[in-house]
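Work package 3, deliverable 3.1, input record:
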Amino acid sequence: MKTVRPIERFRNRSLLIALLGVTAAVVSGPNTLFGQDNFTPNGVADQRRDAFAFTNANIYQANGELLENGTLLISEGKIDRVAADGEVPAGYFTIDLTGRYVYPGLIDIYSDYGLPEPEQASDNNGAAENLFASERAFYVNDAIKSQFRASSVFSPDAESRKSLRELGFSSVLSFRADGIARGTSSLVTLGDERANQAVIVPDAAAHYSLDKGSSVQSVPGSLMGAIALLRQIYLDADWFSAQTPRPYTDESLEAWIRNQSLPQIMEVDNWQLALTMDRVGDEFATQYIFKSAGDSYKQLELIRDTGAALIIPIDFPAAPAVDDLVESDEISLAELKHWELAPYNPARLAAAGIPFAITSKGAGDEFWSKLREAVDKGLPESTAIQALTLRPATMLGVDDRVGRLVAGALANFLVSSGPLLDPDSVLLENWIQGHRYQLASDQADRAGRYRMSLAGRSYEIDLSFNKEVAEATLVGPDRDVDIELARDFISLSFATDGTGNRTRLSGWPEDNGWRGSGSLPDGTPVSWTLVRIGDNADATGSGSDDSSTGAPGPVLYPFVAYGRESLPVQQDLLIRNATVWTNEEAGIVVTDVLVRNGKIAGVGSNLPGAGALEVDGSGKHLTPGIIDEHSHIALFNINERATNSSMVRMPDVVDSENINIYRDLAGGVVAAQLLHGSANPIGGQSALIKMRWGRPPQELLIEDAPKFIKFALGENVKRSSNPASIRYPQTRMGVEQVFVDAFTNAQAYQQAWDNYNSLSVTARRNVIPPRRDLVDEAMVEVLNGERYVTAHSYVQSEINMLMQVADRFDFNINTFTHILEGYKVADKMARHGAGGSTFSDWWGYKWEVRYAIPYNAALMQQAGVVVAINSDDAEMSRRLNQEAAKAVKYGGVSEIDALKMITLNPARLLHLDDRMGSIRVGKDADLVLWSDHPLSIYAVPETTWVDGIPYYDQESDQRLRDEIAAERARLIARITRDAPTTPADDSAEEE
Amino acid sequence: MSVTLKVADRLTAVTFLRTVVLLVTAASMGLVRAVVPVPAEDQSEPIAVVGAIVHVGNGTVIGNGVVTFEDGVITGVGSMSDGIDLSGHRLVDVQGQHVYPGFVMPNTVLGLEEVGSVRATQDVLEEGDINASVRSAIAYNTDSEFIPTQRFNGILTAQVTPEGGLVSGYSSVMKLDGWNWEDALLQVDDGIHLRWPRLRRRDRDEETGQLEIIDNPEYEGAVQVLNNLFQNAVTYTGDPVNLNLQALQPVLNGAARLYLHADEPREIISGVRFARRYGIADVVLVGGRQALQVKDLLLEESIPVLYEEIHALPEHTWSDVNESFKMPFLLTDAGLKVGIGGGGTSIDRQRNLPFFAGTAAAYGLDRETALAMITRNNAEILGVADRVGTLEVGKDATLIVSTGDALDMRTSNVIWAFIQGREIDLYGTQQELFERYQERYSNRRD
C-alpha cells in the first residue's frame, strides 16, 4: 500500500496543489478498453485495474449528512465501499482528502448532450396545408416521434461534456426536444469514454411536450390539438396492443407501448398546462414528471395536489430593461414580479414538500450563481444537492447507480474544497466512472499578494485568476504583468517604469512562491524571488450584496396586474331600492334584492337582511350579469386546423390569468362561452366559464355545464383568405359534405360499439373492441343530444343547409352564431328551434357579410328566435350593454327584451337559464349594479358580483390601480438599485 | 308657411322614413334598390327647423330653438323667442328633439374600400413608401354602400384618407352626398398623411417562438428616407419636375396640413420635431394613443390630436381598464384640442362615431364637449370650420335632427339630415331589407 502524503503546506490550501499534482500523475485518463472485450486496440493490450482509496474526506451521504473522516474505495469505475473506519485494503492507491468534501456526481435530468439539434419547422402560414404524415411506417401524425431513441444517435461531444463536467455534472439524461411524443432519452455519463460505456441506460425515460417540433404537418396547430392527439394515441395504443398479429405496422405505436413502463416526462410552458396535463395523465393512469417553467410558486398548492415530481429550471430571468420610460411601460407587472420571485421558486417548492430535480438547462454558465441565489432565497442546501443527485436518480429509478455514494454505484463523485454550496468553495475534481477530471486550475490557490525581490529592489504583485487564467498586476503603478503559469514553471514580464522597457523573468515554484532567473531591460542577468505576503486587496466583495433587498412582493391571484393577494369573499348582501331588471314577470321594479350563499334569496320590498351587507341601490340599476355567448378571451389558443376538430377541448387551454377576464367584469360580464375558432367546419368543444378572477382554470369552468361544440360555415372554413389553401372543403358544397360525412361516420362508430356491447362477456373475449376515436365520440354526443352545436354562419343558404343536415341526422342546431343573414330565414330557424347569437351592427368586412343589417336581432326576435347579442371580441365584450341598446335603435326592440339579449337569452341558449340570466330566488347571484340605465351609453358598472362575490367594484379597482403603481415603482427601484456598478467587471468582460 | 310636418313623439326613424320614401320611390314595389339612395336635390325653399333643442357644436345648447337656412346656408340660429324671421320658410317642427351639426368623420377610408377581404374593392394603399402625390378624392366612390349607413347615424362629412407607406398622399374632405367625387368635394387635398415609422415592433423570437417587442431595424433607414425627401422638397425648384416633391410644397408653404400618424410617445416627439425642422406650420397628430405622455410638447407646439381608439383595449395589461374611454377627457383636461375619430376601427364600425363621443362623455367629459369633438373640433382640425362643424349663420346647412340624444345608441334616432340644405334620403339598403323582412314575418305570424 502506497500512501501519498501531502507535501509540506505552504498555506492552508496547499494540500490541493499537492493532491492534484500526484493524482494527475497516476491517472492517465479513461481506459477505453474497460469492459468491452470486442475492442481491438491499436497497439498492445493495456488491461489495468484502477483502484483508489480516498481517505479522511467529508463524504456526503444520501441522507444529507456528512460522513467525517470517511473513506471511499473505488475500483474499475465503481464504488466498492464507503466507510468511516479508514481501513484501506491492499491494491488501492490511497489519496488523502483531508479537509476535502466528496459529493455524488451531479445529474442533469434535462439535457440534449450528445444529440443532434432537431430541425425547426418553418411556419407555413399562407401556404398550402401539409395534410398528411410523411411516408414512413410511423404514426399518422409526424409530431408523434415515440420511435425515436436517443441511444441510437447518441455520440459523445467532447466540447459540451467538458463544460458540463466543469459545472460538476457527471451524468445527464439526454433527450431530443422534438415532437409531442419525443421518444426515449438515455442516461449517459460525461467521461471521455466511448459511447458504449457512456450510455448507462439506453432507454431511461419517455419524453413528451405540447410542441410538435420539426413536424411540418398542419395538424395539430394548437395546444388543445396537441393534447387531443396525446389522448388519441393512448387509445390507439390500447387498441393496437390488443391485436396479434398487428393490423398494420406502426413503429411509433410499438415504441409508445414499450415506452409506457418508463418514467414519463412532460414539458409544459406554465403551471396551468401542468394542471391540464396532470388531468390528462389521470385519464390514462399515467403520472407525468413535469418539466416546469419555473413558475410553480404561482400556485403551489395545486401543483402539490398533482402529486407530480418536477424538473425545474433555475434560469431566473435577468432584470427587465427599465431605463427607458416608454419601454419600461411595455413590461407587464407579471414580468416584473416574476423577475423578483422566480429565484424563490425552488425554496417555495421545497417548503411545500414538492419533490423536484434541478436542471441547468437555460442557466448554462450561470448554473452555480443561480443555484446559490436559490439557496440565498431559502432553498435548503441539502434539498439543492438532492435535487441534483438522489432526486433525479430516484425519478429515473437508477439510484443504485448514480446519485449517491454507495457500494455498487458508479464511481461518479465530486471533490470540493469546502461544503458544495459555500460561495468560497471550489470544485476541484470531477470523478466519472473512476476517472478523474480536474476542474480548478492547479494553481488557483496561489492567488494573493506577493513580494518580488529583484536586483536589490522589491515590488508588490497581485496574482489573481480569471476563469482559470492567471492575471497579475504590479501594485502601485497598477501596471499589468504578463504572466504565464504552469504547474512547474512560471514566466513573467513587466515594465517597472514608464519607458515600456520590460524585465523578463522565468522560474519554478517553491512552497511559498516562486524563484528563478531573468534579465533586466538592458540584458543584465538577475535572480529573483516571489514570496507570498497575503491575500489580494480586492479578493473579497465581488459578489453582490443582496441582503438589503428585503422580502419580495406578494404572489397575486391571478399573477398579473389587478390580481390580489387574497380573493374577494362571498358576501350576504341586501341591495336596497335599486331599479331591478328582473327578466321575470315582474319586469323592472324598484325593490330590494337579498343574496345569501351566492344565490338570490329574496326579491321584494323591505326584506329582512339580518347579517347581510346592505348596499344602497337608490338611483341605480341592478341587472342580471351579462353573459357573452361568443368569446375567445382567456384561451391560450383559438383554432385547431383539422377539418374536423371535434376532439379538441377548449377547457384544456383556459388561461385564468388573462386580463380580459377582469376587463369583462368591469363591463358587467359574469360569464362567457369560450369557443373554438372558425378555421374548420367542425371546431372544438367549448369552455363555459364564469369570470371568477383569481381562480385557477378549473374553477372558472361552470359546474356541470352543458356541453357545446363549435361548427362553422362559409368563408373561414373554406380558407378564403388563403389562396394557397388546398384543404377540403373549398366550397359551401364541400362544407355540407364534411358534416354529412362526419355524422355518417359517427353513426357507424356508434353501431360498431353497440354491436360489441351487445356481445356476451365470453363472446367479447374473442373479438377486439372497436378502436375508440375521440372525433367520432364527440360527434356521437351531438347525435345523441348530449352536446349542443353553436354554428358560426352568415348567409342564408348555409343556414338552411345545416338545419337540413341536422334534421336528416335527427338532432338540433342549438345556436347559430354571428348569423348575420339570420333575418332572411328566421322563420325557419324558429321552426327548427335554433337560437341566434349575433353581432349588433357588424357588416361589410368580408363578402359574406355584405347583406348583414343591424336590424338582424330585431327581425329574428320578431320571427320567434331566441336572440343573443355577443362580442366575439375582447374589447366589445366589456360594452355589451351598448350593443344590446342598438337593438332598440335598430328595429325598436323593447328595452326589457334588449337587455335579455345579453343576459337571459344567452343563458337560455347555453341551457344555463335554470341558474343564471334573471333575478329570481334560487338563481346564482351574478349581478351588476349600474350607475345609470343599463342600456345607456352613460351607464357604468359600479359592482359586478359572481356567485355573490364582488370580483369587480369601482372602489377596489381604484385601490388595485394604486397598488399596481406602487408595486411597479418598488420593483423598478429594486432593478435600478441592483444594476451593476463596478466598471472593473465590465473591463474584465471585454478582455 | 307652406308645409308643416309634425313628427310623432316616439315615431321611429324607419317608420317615418318609410312614409316619406313610399311617396317618392320604387320601394313600394318591394324591391331592394340595386343602388344607393339618389343624391339629394338642391334646396329649393328656405327651411326653418323649429322647436328644437339646438346643439350648436361649440358647447352651447339652445332650448326651444330654431335654425333657418336658405340656398344651403344657415341664415338664423337662436331661441324661438329671438324673433328670427320664419316667413316664407318651410317649417320643420321638431318639438323637443335635437338638432346637431352634421358629425365630421376624420381619417377614414370611406369610399375607398368596399369589402375588407376582397382586394379588388380596395383603393386604399398605393405601392411604395413615398406617395406624396396620390390623391384620395379621385378614387372616392359616392356610391359606396357604407355612406348611407354613416349618414343614418348623423355623419355627413368625412375626410377620405389614403393609407400605407411613410407618406400616404393627400386626403380630401367630402360631403357625404353627391353624384360623383367632384360634386362631393368640400375641401380638396386638405393635407398630406405622414405615418411615422415604428421604433419598435412585434417579432417572433426564433429560439423561444414567443412574440416579443424588438427595436425596429428599419427605423433609422425610414427616418433617413423621410429626411431626404423633405430636404429635397425644401430646395425643390421644379426642374426637373418631381411629382412627390411638388406635392409636398403646399405642406411646406402652409397651404395644406401635415397629418402626423403616430401613437407611441417617442414617435410622436420625433415626428413633431421633424415637422418643425422643415418649418411645417399646420401639424395634426392622428392616433395619439399615448399622446398624454407628451402633452407638454403638443401644447407648446399647439398641435391638436385626432384621438381614434376610444372603443379599444387599454395599452397595457396593467393600464386602467377604462383608459381608452377616459383619454379624450384626460387630453382635454391637459389643455389640448381634441377631435374624436374612428379611423382605428374597421369601416363598418365607424358609423359608431357619435357613440365614441358618448363613451367619452360617460368617462369624464361633459356631453357638449364630447359633441364638439365630433363637430367643431374635427372641422377646425381638418380646416373646414368655415363651412361645417357648428350651427352658425353663414355656414353650410349641414345638420341633423335626432328624436333623442344622438350620442347614446339607446336614444339616437336621426330622422332628418341636410347637407348644404339638401334633404338627404336616410333610407338605405339596410332599412329596406329590414322592412322587407319585417313585413314578411308580420304576415306570417301565427
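Chain A has 28 helices and 42 strands.
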